[in-house]
Amino acid sequence: MVRDKSIRWALVLGFALGGFFDGILLHQILQWHHLLSLVPGAGDLTRQVLWDGLFHAFMYLLAAAGLWGLWRAHRRHLMPTGAGLAGALALGFGLWHVTDAVLSHWILGLHRVRIEAEAPLAWDLGWLTVFGLVPMGTGWVFLRRGQNNPPGRGGAALAALVILCLGSGAWAARPSNAPYTLAVFAPNRPPEHIARDLANLGANVVWSGPTLQVALLDVPAQERWALYRHGAVFVSGTALPAGCLGWSAAS
User: Fold this and answer.
1) In what order do the strands lie in the sheet containing 232-235?
2) Which of 14, 61, 71, 106 is the most buried (most CB within 10 A)?
3) Cα–Cα dist 35/23, whole Å
4) Is 222 helix (H, G, I), strand (E, B) or coil?
5) Residue 227 CA, distance from chain mean position
6) Do the beta carbons of residue 95 and residue 134 sit within 8 Å?
7) Cα 239 to Cα 20, 56, 133, 246, distances in angstroms
8) 3-state secondary structure (DSSP) of residue 46
9) Going by C-beta distance under 8 Å and a sequence separation of 6 or more, which residues neighbour residue 184?
């Protein structure tokens, strides 16, 4: 039963890696769609970039949870290894794409794989097959083969996964070709203090929530890191999922 719980954390990590792959390739590199491309009233490119940034922040949280669970299993010599670990990661990776296709593409209608294609359903089905069903099937086979493998510490595998997640997160945090920076501030940060600090940094607010806790900014690239000193917990383009200094910044 304990080992099954460790497998679940690998599934969570694979799910997050699937989200990173989707966001990096389709949102940023190919630019086939944004998270809310088909949502009426979702706004122009600035708000689309905002929601893409929030999506990547959520993937950070899932990846961190998966790594934390595997670290605990590693400490107790219960981490899945070999085919079991590879199978769980592949199964989670494919599960993300199946979930995205069914929920985001067809039920909620948030976007399609390639919106401007003449046959968007064909692209949806092709993507679902190649990156969803095939990895899930392969992962299931590997997972069953790895059931008899004894669990262990898996230190090298865990280190490789940490590097992979950090690399994926760093790429996802890179700013897109739109010259804007997404910043999320600590909930205890007063709006008037956020406004004051943004003005001191020379940052112009392109869009924000009602309390400035989430804001899309036109800010000089060299000043992005300074946002962490002023209460930000996430700043796109800094390769960090959250700013450690942000939570402790004095108001």
Assistant:
1) 204-208, 214-218, 181-185, 232-235
2) 14
3) 8
4) helix
5) 21
6) no
7) 13, 11, 31, 15
8) helix
9) 54, 57, 213, 214, 232, 233, 234, 235
* DSSP states along 58-82: HHHHHHHHHHHHHHHHHHTT-B--H
**Residue pair 176/45 in contact by the 8 Å Cβ criterion:** no
Closest Cα to residue 92, out of 189, 21, 163?
21
Rounded (10°) angle between helices 120-128 and 82-99: 160
- Paired with 215 in beta bridges are 183, 208
pTM for the model: 0.69
154-163 average pLDDT score: 76
95 CB-near residues (< 8 Å, 6+ apart): 11, 14, 15, 18, 132, 136
Backbone angles phi, psi at 46, to 5 degrees: -60, -45
* pLDDT tens track for 194-250: 999 898 888 888 878 778 888 888 887 777 888 888 888 777 766 554 443 333 333
Amino acid at 150: P
| CATH number at 181-248 | 3.30.70
The alpha-carbon radius of gyration of the chain (Å, integer) is 20
39-48 per-position pLDDT tens digit: 887 767 767 8
Which residue intervals of the chain bear CATH 3.30.70? 181-248
